[in-house]
Amino acid sequence: MLPQSSHSPRGARRSSVGAKPRVCVHCGRSFRRTEHLERHVRTHTKEKPFTCFCGAAFTRRDLLKRHTRITHEENNPPNTGGLISPNSQPDHEENPVIQQRPPYDAPPQPAPRANVPIPVTSPAVAQWPGPPQHGTYIPQSQQMMNPDTSHAALGAHPVVTHDAEILEAAQLLLPGGYLGPPPPAQPMPYFPEELNHFQEFTHFLDSIGLPVEWLPTTTDITPPIHGAVPNDTAIREQPSSSRKVSDRSRGDSPFRSWLPSVPPGDQSLGSVSDYEPPQESRNPSPLKITEEQRQRFAYSLEEFRNVIPDFVLPSRHTLSRYLASFFQGFHSHLPFMHAPTLRINDHAPELILGICTVGAQYRQEHHNAERLFYTGRTVLLERMAREPHIPLTGYSNITVQVPISHSFHSTEGILPPEAAAGASAWRQIESIRTLLALMAYASWEPKQELIQEAFSLQSMLVRSLRDFGLAENVTVAPRHTPLQWHEWAEEESIRRTRIISFCFVHIHSIAYNVYPTLRSSEIHLRLPCATKEWKATTASEWEDTQREPSPPPLFFQEALAILLQPSRTTIVPDPIPTPLGNYILLHGLLQRIHLVSELSLPTGDHASSLPTEELNRLERALRAWTSAWQQAPESSLDPHNENGPIPFTSSALLGMAYVRLSLNLGPYRQLETRDPYLIAATLHRSPRPGRNYRLTPALIYSAHALSIPVRLGIDHVARSQAFFWSVRHSIAGFECAILLSKWLLSLAEPGNGHNLSENESRILHWTRCIVQEAYDSMDTEDDDILPNLEPATLGLAVIRVWSRLFRKNTQWRFINLLGESLKQYLAMLPG
């Protein structure tokens, strides 16, 4: 702040006609006092002229004094020697931001930017131009902003944007008698200048975990920024009991369990920079969205305002919640993006909307999920219409050029052909990921219009996959030697995106009994990398895995051919595929069963019979696959497996594969109708499985599928299955329930129950034990008691238990549909 002239009375200066107007050169706003103008200009230039000897810089002198008092008072007595003001900087200071102050009447000029190279690994952030010149998708407080000047105001303030809740909380920082600033000479900007510094307060609260939106509303509580920041060393020296009491006593946040200890020194006032490469980022959680990231996300949607005019972007806490739910829930079953290096502003906005759609579904916020789905779909279709994809199938090598900015439409015309192809490749892989996320949501929703959307998205996804290519010929640019962690992660993610898309398209074909639109013979990719490599959370951990000698994964076609080769001995792929690799191979075998079954004819009232030679080949392949699954070190039947639920889901699909060798229920479900009665009636007309030795594996896996939720607790699994029980698992359980029930009911027919084979007797005994355990543990009504353990009663009980499990599901309403259909099917059975 410049000193006032001693010979100029204050009143004379105010009334002076010849005084130059104090107007901001950036936004045109006028001020009554020069110090207010200087402080305001620093919100544009980001200048922090008040520097401490420890390196911390601040925009105001009082903030510097407060920092010195809090941080350095204990070890160093307060003195002016610890402060480095702008005027006391040495001439050789290398800080380009700190300059000599401008003359008194001249408006401050923006500080020159440091000539710092921008990493290419932070594309959407490095050249972010700031918010647009019109309203964003962030809701604003109508009381704090003139509607007629909102567009100009947003353009004038490129950084500071707040929710209405933030503005309300900001009022707590103002004096009790504050009535607002005097009417300005020009239209009122975004909100009063006194609130601009609330951004720093937001950073401080966010760094310690206190959500600023939930600031205490009582005015007698002093905001935390005015209190002393406790020394972390002293905190560590406290007894653990006293620390626990202190944590429990925090009454200033409804989420006090989120509050960690404050970092030492002044680190709590820093914010994580989005300019760092992923492997150097200090952000402890890539799934937590900051307000700056949300602002950039909102800006990236501005070019689509004409097609989504009414969309309001959720708060950063909501987005963080959805992002975390996606990766903890859906993504753990189909891991196609690398979470440790994820930076949301590096990705297309439609992809983030697709991810948040699935995340909202996992949070059971169905209305928001549907709204995000239609917004993401609209943005995706609009981008694909504006920027047609360049087919890449003719390229022997595809270089995916990670762009500097996601506003591709303005740069493609000046790029050389190779760079244009690389930018198009990036857009295509982002579109594929978006289609996969959107299809994952629409496929399992109960509304008919969403089912039609799912089939439309499936066609677009298959077409995009073929245009991009399904061969192992993709590299990411720029590429270093040796390969860096984030570069490797992107290449592995691109591989997984394509091969997991094949798996999801196939499970969609299984669920709705449609001919496979993407065949396994088209996949020429390697299987995914080792789980340890993928789950490394830092560059050093990943580098450690690279030092361990290991052969590269097999190609999908190569491993599938090993499983299907005609041999009397069991031959497994070498090296042993990872659990995800085994999951993908099982989809290849399931698709072969599907295609062969389509060519088979039914025999009487029994299921269609596959050719003997093909049956033998498929059974050998399933045995070899089981052996490979058992040899994978991460494989486990524990649904809470620390390595993820993929081995658990694979075991369910293995049971489905054996069921489909004996009973193809695909044409007898009609799940696409979403009508429980019609589905049940079609199931009731389905053929019976033929009783022979080939049926034994299917019966064993069907009984085993029922035993898992019974062992864990039917009602517990039904209500808490979100993060280890997938829709694919439910579809497999649905088919296993029908097969086991039909076999049990066939044993009750006259003459069939007296000639059981030894294996059938064991399976019958096992089923009795499982059903008895289920009924003993369930809260059943008086009319649901188990009268006996005869085969007919067991057949009905199996359907009743599975129906209860599916109907109590709270995650996907598609699973509720399965339960209601089984309930209707049970009512059609005799007894």
Automatic annotation (TrEMBL):
4Fe-4S found in the keyword field: no
A GO molecular-function descriptor: DNA-binding transcription factor activity, RNA polymerase II-specific
A single GO cellular-component term on record: chromatin
Keyword vocabulary terms for this entry: Metal-binding, Nucleus, Repeat, Zinc, Zinc-finger
PROSITE patterns found in the cross-reference section: ZINC_FINGER_C2H2_1, ZINC_FINGER_C2H2_2
One GO term of the biological process aspect: DNA-templated transcription
Family matches, as InterPro entries: VerF-like, XnlR_reg_dom, Znf_C2H2_sf, Znf_C2H2_type
C2H2-type domain boundaries: 22-49, 50-77
Origin: domain of life: Eukaryota
Sequence ranges of Basic and acidic residues compositional bias: 244-253
UniProt-listed Gene3D superfamilies: Classic Zinc Finger
Residues passing through the membrane, by range: none
Annotated localization: Nucleus
Residue span of region Disordered: 1-20, 69-113, 220-290
Protein name (database record): C2H2-type domain-containing protein
